[in-house]
Amino acid sequence: MTSALKEVPSNASTPVLNQWDRRHSWHPFTQMQEYCGLPQLHVERGEGCWLWDSEGNRYLDGNASVWTNAHGHNDPEINAALKEQIDKVAHSTYLGLSHPLGAELGKKLADLSPDGLTRSVFSDNGSCAVEIALKLSFQFWQLSGQLDKRLVVGMENGYHGDTFGAMAAGNSGDFHGKFSPWLFESRTFAAPVCEEIDGQVFEADASRSLDSLEKILEEDAARVAAVILEPSIQGPAGMRLQPNGFLKEIEGLCRRFDVHLILDEVFVGCGRTGTMLACESESVQPDFLCLAKGLTAGYLPLAATLTTERIYEAFLGPFDSGNGFYHGHTFTGNPLAACVALKSIEKLERLIGSGQLEETIAYFGRRFAAAFQAHPNVRNLRQRGLAAAIDLFAGEGRESWELNDRVGMQVCVEARRHGLLLRPLLDSILIVPPLIISHEEIDFLFEKLEAALDAVMNNLSH
């Protein structure tokens, strides 16, 4: 051990940053052997829908910084709110204390949500929001004397996060299969079939899915605590869509068999599908609603699990009853994050109320369809709201690619050379821009993605 700290340069060069990154970082959802062999990119600043790296190169953020960014980077209104709050207090515990912004945010979320969702439990991220919903459901049934109700039913290909409860409730074998021996028991029902682009539905069938769930509930409702799903769009599954009316049918089955409905709106909430919440388009009232990602517009970690007075009141009692909900996080209800959420919601209400978001989504859908509907290397494409995906394939009469060919990753690395940042899901490309993206930026996005795709396919054919 050295006797003095090593001096660290305040403005390290990009080669030095690359070296430090390779030696000391372990990036999420990343095979580091692959990562260390690819060109590295250090994002240094942002403005609107654009990001700049440490070399001064500009990129359109086609990933909304992992689906969080709503109003663009470096938004003046959010910046001003954050600067005002940081001069007051950066953090104060929410354990046994409150603060004005926490109280205001709880009220605002209750006003925005379906009738009956009156209580918010704050946490730090979407996985924790789901964990809280699961724990509240389990404990509610214990307190109600129904001790056998501890089974969770999730939808095929469901992804709810990477903590153990969230993994158990999901069905993401590629992500979580290695941990299956440690996961609690759960059941899975089939996902519906739906293909939609630019508001036009090409195929929709929910019958198999609904029959599958109904059969599980008929057999096991006495043991089922909750049904959980991502409404409207299963994002991490590759933007898999659900037909209109599907969520209302799910709600009906949950009410009929007396099981909780947990809606994971971590991705689809806060404007991503065109409305503030995805569930409001079908007037669905869940027992638990999980929000994160866009809640703070890509600024700070904050999540909320909303629930009802019925759930809340079951936990009330004298201290010695042990009924309280003993779950919390150090940064629960952080004032800086709460102030950002409030300002972001205010801006979202304007964006939605003015019709601007609806118009942007319509243009996005048209340009997406025009770019890829007839592309020879695109097998399937899906789009709803400001979320889209294309599935790549080698082309008619050609052999399929091997997993290690990493064609989706090749396209995304090539897209960087064209000034566009995206993330692949194996050989699918997911497209999730900030909500305030302009028509010109949408044109840029699809032109550069098409150019990157063509460059990679041309190289693979030789």
Count of helices?
A: 15
Backbone CA Rg: 23 Å
Fourth-level CATH superfamily of the largest domain: Type I PLP-dependent aspartate aminotransferase-like (Major domain)
What low-confidence regions span 5 or more consecutive residues with pLDDT below 50? Answer: 1-9
Helix content: 25-40%
Alpha-beta content class: alpha/beta
CATH architecture of the largest domain: 3-Layer(aba) Sandwich
Q: Can you identify the CATH class of the largest domain?
A: Alpha Beta
The largest sheet has its strands arranged as: 4-14-13-12-9-5-6
Strand tally is 19
Average pLDDT: 94
Major β-sheet profile: 7 strands, mixed
- What is the CATH topology of the largest domain? Aspartate Aminotransferase, domain 2
What global shape is seen? globular
- Summed up, the domain count is 2
Beta-strand fraction estimate: 15-25%
Distance between the termini: 54 Å
Task: Give short descriptive properties of this protein.
single chain, 462 residues, alpha/beta, Aspartate Aminotransferase, domain 1, Aspartate Aminotransferase, domain 2, 7-stranded mixed beta sheet, 4-stranded mixed beta sheet, 15 helices, 19 strands, 19% strand
Blueprint (SSEs and pairs):
Elements: H1 14-24, H2 32-35, E1 43-47, E2 50-53, E3 58-61, H3 64-67, H4 76-86, H5 100-112, E4 117-123, H6 126-143, E5 151-155, H7 164-169, H8 173-176, E6 186-189, E7 193-197, E8 200-205, H9 207-220, E9 224-229, E10 233-234, E11 240-241, H10 246-257, E12 260-264, E13 288-291, E14 303-308, H11 309-314, H12 335-353, H13 356-372, E15 378-384, E16 387-392, H14 407-417, E17 420-421, E18 423-425, E19 428-431, H15 439-460
Parallel strand pairs: 3-17, 5-6, 5-9, 9-12, 12-13
Antiparallel strand pairs: 1-2, 2-3, 4-14, 7-8, 10-11, 13-14, 15-16, 16-19, 18-19
